[in-house]
Structures are given as structure tokens and as C-alpha cells.
Amino acid sequence: MDLMMRWKTSRYVHVLDVPEATDRKVAFNSLTLQAFDIEPAEARLLERFKQPDGLPEAPGDEARDLVASRLIVAADDDAPGQAAARLNAVRQAEFRRGAGRYRTLRLSLTERCNMACGYCFQQKLYPDQQPRMSMELLESTVEWFVDQAEGQEVSVQYFGGEPLMEWNLIVRSHELLAEAETAGKISGFHQSITTNGTLMKPSRAKWLVERDFGVTFSFDGPPEINDQQRTFKNGRGTYEKAAEGLRNWVAAGGESGILMTASSFNVGKLKEIVRWFVEESGLEPQIIGLNSPQPISTGWETGGEELARTVFDIWQYVEARGITFHGPGAYMPGNLQLEKPHSDNCVSGRPSQSGGDAWPVYVSADGRRSLCLVHHRDARVEVTPEQPMKQAGLNWHKSHATIKDCDSCIASQLCGGPCTLERILWNDRLNPDRCGFMQEMARLVLVHD
Ligand SMILES: C[S@@+](CC[C@H](N)C(=O)[O-])C[C@H]1O[C@@H](n2cnc3c(N)ncnc32)[C@H](O)[C@@H]1O
Ligand code: SF4
Ligand code: SF4
Questions:
Q1: FRET partner for 194 with CA separation of 20 to 30 A, picked from 71, 122, 383, 408?
Q2: Which fold has domain 101-297+345-399?
């Protein structure tokens, strides 16, 4: 070791306590995504070497592992900005590989709905006029999507409003995708539906199962909770009708999948709600998902840090019972295992099934194309017909993680952010709840995995 050098604990090191363990801690390097079990004496060394300019002394033998693991580094090697640089490099490489293709299409078949959920972000965007997608628009949209995919595998999610209100469009879209696959225009396709479940008749369930659709049913809890927000337009609760739809789906051979929305109405009870679904509802869910909260002017209506602890508890509970969990942050163990940055800067985590090398696009019932899968009907996120889609995607997704606060954040390579939508909506101010959620989720995953 060069004795003239100054040495310091890397600015990217985070030392975490392990619950109920006094003899070990976790040292996490948020730049490399490597985590190490360390002893309390090593944690004290990391604390001592944490000087902004480093220490002139060479680390002794007791710090050999910490130097080898790059937890203690030469001060000259500890310049700020490395986290953003790594994330940007990964993004650029992925963009080059994806060459600017959209591979996930969220298709809003109608902005109309047979229900009137109190919190629905989508219905709030269409308070008066609620367009339905025409057959011509559906056909031209699917044809465009297939053409630009250039032989890749694609994924189409039918959305709304209530997508099952437009059954003919689902059938036609399926035909077009199957024809495109036969003609070799795409190498395969996956279709999914997010539904309120109330219109899932046995005949439809059978047709969808035979064509390998994935279907998730939105519920917020047992009837007394679900029916506070998820109501028909006349105010009547929807639980029983939606549960009947899910039972029809399962009877046809479909997998029981429930998608919940955390809101101020149910956030405190989420763990109990999940337990009820698993143990008492009789719906026997095999998949339980939780929607990412939508940004409001102050952050998330549900808070962030506390929500992470709730989501983590739910995740552990369902996995212990062999049930698959989908929820915000659930991708983190995979990234940590591969030491691979999460480069998709999307509010709901992974926007494309293929990872970060292809983009998602949202097409509304009246044909607006939005680069954000959530927010639309807003010029800031839409691509106009004159704009080249590829360039628009590049501009949206290459938005660089240049916010200074992110550099030494524990979640800098894990949160996927800052989210482009939030940067636009809030002039680059970070969403404190999203950050609180991602940071706490990273800590929980690191000390438990
Ligand atoms: C907009 S709906 C459209 C599909 C279908 N009608 C349904 O309810 O599943 C899709 C999902 O968004 C969720 N959602 C609606 N408003 C939300 C909000 N403000 N925050 C988070 N998720 C929301 C719904 O609960 C549902 O799971
Ligand atoms: S059923 Fe879906 S689209 Fe309809 S109001 Fe509820 S959340 Fe919104
Ligand atoms: S959690 Fe927040 S502060 Fe941390 S990297 Fe993500 S956007 Fe930046």
C-alpha cells in the first residue's frame, strides 16, 4: 500500500444493523450493489475511516477485507458522481441494445367503466367525456406496435376504464397478434388484462384461459373494506360480483390473482387484509399484487417509509405460503443478486417484461400515446402524431439521474429513479415518500436476504 495515500470509507458504504443480531452487521456498497456481512469491530473501522478527506494512515491488517471489498478506498478514488455515471452507462448500453423499440403496450380499450371507485386516477382524467376505442384505431395501433417491434417478443396489457366492456376489441387484437406471430413479424406475444372482474362470464373466462391470457382482479379487501371505495355507479358494493367473476375465471382453469390498491382507507389494515384473502376469503389467491401509489402534490397518499415495512411484511407472509407477490420494490432481490442496477426509471418498477432494453407505451381509447404508463392526457407525457416515437422514447428514458441527493443514496442503483414523470410534475424535486419507500425497502431486503 502506498503510505502517502489517504484512505477513507467509500462514500457509497452504508452500514446496517441486522435485527436481533449483535455480532454482525451488513455493509452495503450502493455503487457496486455488493453486500458484506461484517463484524462490529469492522463497522467501527468503517466509522473511523469515514473522514471527508480520508486518513493519512494505511489501513492495518484488521481492515484488509474492507479494502479488498472496496469498502475502504483510496481517497482519490472516491469522487462523487460515480453512482449517476454507472446508472447512465447501463441505461445507454440498454438503449443501444433495444435500439428504441416499444415492447410493452398498455392499451386502454375504453375510458368508460361500469364502476365508480372513489380513488380512481383514470376516471379522474375523464370526468366528462369517456371515449371508447374504435375498431379502426385498435387495428392501426396493434399494427403499428407489431411493425416497430421488428421480430421481438411483445406484451400487450388490456386496460381502461373497464377493458371487459370492449370484448370485441380484445378478440380482434388477439387475432392480429396471432397473425403477426404466424407471419414472423413478432417472435411471440403475451397478453394480460387488469379487470374489476364484474364482467368475467364463464364463456369469456374459458376463451381467455385457452389463449393463455394473464388476468388480475382488482380488490381492496373483504366486502366491508372493498365496498367503501370500489362501488358501482349507484353506490352499491362490488365485492360479491367481482368475486363471482374471479371464481368463473378459476373454474375455467385460470390462476387466482388479486391486485390491491393501497389508499388512506386500507393502508393501516393491509396486512390483515392480505391474511383474510389468503385464509378466509375462499378465493385461494396464487398471486397477490399491490399497485404502486400514484403521486399526489405532497408525495404519496399512503406515505412511504411505513408503507415499505408493511409491503415487506406482506411479501414475507405470502411467500412463506407459496404465493407469488408482485409489488413496488419486489424486484430488488433480483438486482442485488445479479449486482445489476435497476435502470428502468418507472414509477411502477419494471415497465417492460424484457428489462430495461425496451420501452412501454400507453395508448388511450382516443389514440393518445403516452410515455408514462400511468399518467396521460397531458402534453408533457404524450407523443404527438408528428413526433417520431423513437426519439420521444429516447428523450423520456435517457433522462439522467443527475439529482445530487441521489449519488450516495442507499437506493441509487435500486430505485430506478428519479421517476421521469415526477421530475416533470415537480420540477426535479424528489418525491419524499417514494424515496422513503425505496430506501427503507432496500434496507429491509439487505438485512433479511
Ligand atoms: C385504473 S384500473 C383499470 C382496470 C380495471 N377497471 C380495474 O379496476 O382493475 C387499474 C388499476 O388501477 C388501480 N387504481 C385506480 N386508482 C388508483 C390510484 N389512485 N392509485 C393507485 N392505483 C389505482 C385500480 O385499483 C386497478 O387495480
Ligand atoms: S373499476 Fe377500475 S377503472 Fe373502474 S373506477 Fe374502479 S379502478 Fe377505475
Ligand atoms: S430513492 Fe430518491 S434520493 Fe434515492 S436515488 Fe432514488 S430518487 Fe434519488
A1: 383
A2: TIM Barrel (3.20.20)
